[in-house]
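Instructor's aside before we start: the two examples that follow are unrelated to each other. I chose them only because their records fit on one page, so don't look for a connection. First example below.
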Amino acid sequence: MTAPGLRTTPTIGDIDGDGTPDILVGATDGYLYAWDLDGQLKPNYPLDLGSPIKSVAALVNLNTDPAAEIIVHTGDSHLHVIDSTGTPLPGWPQDLGGEADTFSRWIIGSSPRVFDLHADGTLQIAIGSTANKVHIFNTDGTTVPNWPAQTGDWVYSSITPVDLTGDNAPEIVAGSGDNQLYAWTADQQLLPGFPVTLDGALIGTVATADLTGNGINDLVATTYAGSIYAIDANGKLLPGWPQHANAAIIATPLIIDVDSDGALDIVAASRDNTLYAYTATGTPIPALTLKANDWIESTPAAGDIDGDGTIELIYATYDGTLNHVDLTTPATPATLAYPSFLGHYVAPTTDDADQDGLLDTYELETFGTLDHTGTDDTDYDGISNYAEWLAGTAPNDANSRFHLQIHCHEDPATQATHFTLNWPTQDDRTYTVYSSAGALGPQATWTQVDSQNLKNGQTMQCTVACPEGTTLFFRVTIETK
């Protein structure tokens, strides 16, 4: 289970559509390696892409088959999108026009970032290049209008899509070898205050989280000069920054709660054999500033790896040692704001960026905007938008109703009366039926009679016996994950 010259993080995903994860990594010999979870090399692997691979591959399903496609940046300055056999998808590869990784000139390569640029439910692929540019492509290989963006030097770092303006759509953040931190709108307009001049080339990817609690994302960037910067959405330094290591920083910083005080902290690894930890205001955390026996070039990772509910911090050193530290911080999304290298992360297109209780793609499809919340009643029919989403009715049509049919029939064998309820279902909902005999309101005693989790298009059917002379009332609840 070895591959020569590994300079990148492996990626886990289902490359052949068999329903089980695979492990994929590119190597400096120009080959792409893939293994099953049992360590067996996958058929057709390694794949020869013809040029060193120093970027992390992204795995995302771009078509209707069950297998993920592979997106990888190679040292001949090409961006590839291939299937598991190595066959390029139509429109690929794309020549980025940059300088090639001859004689190992590249420190690392920018990793492809897959995300929804316009919050319209479609994916785009962003990549930096040694042509001093940030490129954004559609998944068919066409260039997104107004891109690429020009910088003054190679773009080693991966691209960070993040909402800096509060419009629930991503801005594009990237660092360059010209010592500049850039932030653009989706149509490639520089944000006010950007670019920001730092003291050295930016190699690691820019991390992002709300460090001040004002509801707006901030940026954390590191430089080859060994400095760590925390910068707000207006391009201004946050109080207490920058801080400085004693050697170059190549790794991406983390933003996590390292000391379990309920506030986010910043972790940065340096070639001075040190893993640094600071509060969001730049105060060092000595107990969690860790010394190692060799350079720490790769990005650490944080998460609950042993299932005890608290964070473990993992970091590797240049001498081949893998280290771990048990923290006391509970492992939650809030405490793990930016827990590892996310440069290749496939951002979901069906999320809730505005946190209003409705999936953004559903809002866009239904209303055309993100201005309607889950608690609103857009069609004034007395039912909230969220409840209508659960039920599968149209929240912008007061005549759209949840249709439940009840049939009364007699059991020929027992002559007992039965009611059968049925209705069409929505995807991945749990429907629970309750009945109450002879009473409604506070006096009602509701008894569960059935519960099923069904997929879209299936019909929920529930049959309930009704004792003679009894009036039954029914209630249906709908829940989703």
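Example two begins here.
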Amino acid sequence: MGATGATGVVGPTGSTGVTGPTGATGPTGPPVTFTGAWSNTTTYSAGDSVSYVDGSSYISLVASNTGNIPNSSPSQWGLLAQAGGTGAAGATGATGPAGPTGPQGPTGATGATGATGATGATGATGPTGLTGPQGATGATGATGATGATGGVAVPIFNTVASLSGTFNTTTYVAENGPTASITAGASGNVIVTTSWNASNATAADACYMTFTSTGFAPSSQGVGDAVAVSIVSGKANILGSAGAVHIVTGLTTGTSYTYHAYFRSSAATACTGTNATVILQTY
């Protein structure tokens, strides 16, 4: 007999056979009891169902089921309903009413400085402020030019070379006294110069010479001892000389005034006077 030949090629797969008959109905399972969310401290009986954090629900397959995690303990828990996938996005709902105003937010950062605005119109003038303190004294100014030289005053005088008689009264009298006249200038001022020689009769006596002017009361023109030329020797029959210069003010410009000499004795004894003089000068 010859050798066995090589194995032939595998033939094609045959067609599917006819479906077999339906098997017998299995026994009724335990009742399903929903107990809420799964807890690792609860003991579950067979048929208890729970919801789990993964969104699916599970049924306990055994009794005394404690601490077994539903989605990782297939011997104790069976998947009852799997969580559905994320559905398609629904249509945009209508805009809801405006919510209440939120609290004030924090102050934002300072913005950049804006461009300089146009110059505004000039405002009304404000009230005058208080007077400021006295300023420091300024520097001395330059010396002004020298003024023109004034005119030379020309004295007008009347001199009595000798005076006779005696003056033995204590009040002033005009006895042979000299007189002089002058027209008041623009200043209204006149310089009156009086001088005389006199001798007294007793050591206790004093001799006085003064003056007055027409148009004025003697009291206002200095008739009295305050402007008198006096001779006081302290000895009897002593001849002495005296003179004085007085300024008379307040005269009317262009008016002529006549000045008179007056004399008196301090002790009502004889005083003899000579060379009594009155000199007038405007200034």
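The CA atoms of residues 137 and 143 lie 17 Å apart.
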